Amino acid sequence: MVEDRITDGRRIAELLSSEIDGREDGELEYFAVTNADRDVEPTADGARAYDIAHDDRDERIARAFVHEDRAHIEFAAAQDVAADAASDLELRVRPKATTPPRTLVFVESGAEVKRATDVLQRVSRAVREADQSL
After folding, report:
1. Which of 1, 62, 75, 115 fits 52 for a cystine, CB–CB 3.0-4.6 Å?
2. Where does the DUF7993 domain start and stop, copy by copy (predicted)?
3. Mean pLDDT value across residues 63-88
4. Residue 3, domain member (yes or no)
5. How many domains does the chain have?
């Protein structure tokens, strides 16, 4: 039996979106997919597919991008937490040298979507703790 592995970037981003919008357990209840580009076409550098907003902040904390063979999440909030969580969960991660800086977490298969949502949950906890300490 051949095991199918989802490695289409657009499909991976769709699965991630479904997890974010469809699950209300843990920290995922605080997230929403916003500004979705339903006609997005994958590119080598990654094309923006949608934003990921956090209800407590009512602002974008990340954006999802699609490539031909993977997706990536670009974190604008809690970048260090995202990097540590992704590394712990064995997802490929790298910093993006922009102003302000960003952290990129790569989701290279459908099987990695659950781990990517675990990264989002850790980021959510960090965001909510930071907001509560203000």
Report:
1. 62
2. 1-130
3. 96
4. no
5. 1
